[in-house]
Write a structure and sequence with these properties.
Layout: E1 2-5, H1 18-26, E2 31-36, H2 44-56, E3 60-66, H3 75-95, E4 100-102, H4 122-142, E5 146-148, H5 159-169, E6 174-178, H6 187-191, H7 193-204, E7 208-213, E8 215-218, E9 226-229, H8 238-248, E10 253-256, H9 264-277
Parallel strand pairs: 1-2, 1-10, 2-3, 4-5, 5-6, 6-7, 7-10
Antiparallel strand pairs: 8-9
Helix pairs in contact: 1-2, 2-3, 3-4, 4-5, 5-7, 7-8, 8-9
C-alpha cells in the first residue's frame, strides 16, 4: 500500500515541473494524480515529459484524472464523456498511470456529483453501462485500468449498485476506486464507519485498485448535514480503513484529496499516524 495525493499538482499539466515533483517528495508521497482538463489536447510527448519529471523525484502517476461532464444524460453529453475517457486512456498509457479515474456523472446539469431523482433509474444505469463498455474497450487495448467511483448522490449510490454495473460491463479493465465518505448517506453510516467500510470491501474488495481518502463529520443543523473534512478531523475509522485496504489492495495507492495545498501536510501526518496505529507501513 502506497500513499499519494490528488489535487496537489497544478491543474494545467504544462505547469508540472521539477519543483512541483520535489515538493511531493519532500512531503513523503510516492504518487500523485495528474489532472487532464481536456485529454484530447495532449500529445504523447507531453505525457512522457510529465512522467519523467515526476519519476526523477521518485513519484509515480497514481491516477490520471480527466475532466468531462457525465457518462449519463443527453446523447451528446455521453458521447463527449466517452471520447474524453478514450483519450485519457492513451494519456494514462504514456504516463504509466496506475489507473484512470472515472466518475459516472449525473442527470443534474449543474455537476457530476449532484442529485437528480432519476439518477438511479433503470434507463440511467443502462446509459452508464453502455458508456463504460465503450470506454473499457479502449482501456483494454491501451493496457490501462479504469477506476470507477460512486457516491450516494450519483447513479452508483451503493456498493451493490457499483458491483452490478461493473459485472454488467464485464471488462477486466473496469475496477473500483474506493472512497468510504462518498457512501456515507445516513447517521448510521457516519457513526458506524466500520460497518460502511466492511460493506464496501465485502462487495468490491476484489475489484478495488485505488482509494480516495478524506473524512466526514455530522453538523448540528436540520435536517441532516454530513460534510467532508480533512482526514483525522471526522468520524472515519482511519486505521480500520487502511487495514482493510491493505488486505484487499496491498499494492494500491491511497490518495488524500479535496484539500488546498497548505492543508495537505497536516492531513498526511494524520494519515501516517493512523497507519502507525494500525501497525502498518507504506510500501
Amino acid at each position: 500500500m502506497r500513499v499519494g495525493v490528488a489535487g496537489f499538482l497544478p491543474d494545467d499539466p504544462a505547469a508540472i515541473d521539477r519543483a512541483a515533483a520535489e515538493s511531493l517528495q519532500a512531503l513523503g508521497f510516492a504518487g500523485t494524480s495528474v489532472v487532464l482538463p481536456d485529454p484530447a489536447l495532449y500529445g504523447d510527448s507531453e505525457m512522457f515529459r510529465i512522467r519523467d519529471v515526476l519519476a526523477d523525484s521518485g513519484i509515480q502517476v497514481a491516477q490520471a484524472n480527466p475532466r468531462y461532464h457525465s457518462l449519463v444524460g443527453p446523447e451528446e453529453v455521453r458521447r463527449a464523456g466517452v471520447a474524453a475517457l478514450r483519450a485519457a486512456c492513451r494519456c494514462a498509457r504514456c504516463l504509466r498511470a496506475a489507473n484512470v479515474y472515472v466518475r459516472p456523472g449525473s442527470l443534474n446539469p449543474r455537476g457530476s456529483w449532484l442529485p437528480h431523482p432519476l439518477n438511479t433509474s433503470a434507463e440511467t444505469l443502462a446509459e452508464l453501462t453502455s458508456s463504460l463498455r465503450q470506454a473499457a474497450s479502449v482501456a483494454e487495448g491501451e493496457g490501462v485500468v479504469l477506476a470507477l467511483e460512486g457516491h450516494v448522490l450519483s447513479p452508483l449510490d451503493s456498493p451493490a449498485r457499483v458491483r452490478q454495473v461493473i459485472d454488467e460491463v464485464g471488462s477486466p479493465a473496469l475496477a473500483f476506486n474506493v472512497d468510504p465518505v462518498n457512501f456515507a448517506g445516513t447517521l448510521a453510516d457516519a457513526y458506524g464507519t466500520r460497518g460502511l467500510i466492511d460493506r464496501l470491501f465485502d462487495e468490491l474488495g476484489d475489484r478495488t485498485v485505488c482509494a480516495h481518502l478524506k473524512d466526514v463529520r455530522v453538523e448540528d443543523r436540520l435536517v441532516l448535514h454530513l460534510v467532508e473534512c480533512a482526514p483525522g478531523e471526522g468520524l472515519l475509522d482511519l486505521p480500520f480503513f487502511l487495514t482493510s485496504f491493505e488486505r484487499h489492495c496491498p499494492t494500491g495507492y491511497v490518495l488524500i484529496e479535496h484539500l488546498p495545498p497548505e492543508l495537505v501536510p497536516a492531513a498526511k501526518r494524520a494519515v501516517d499516524e493512523a497507519l502507525h496505529r494500525a501497525g502498518l507501513r507504506w510500501s
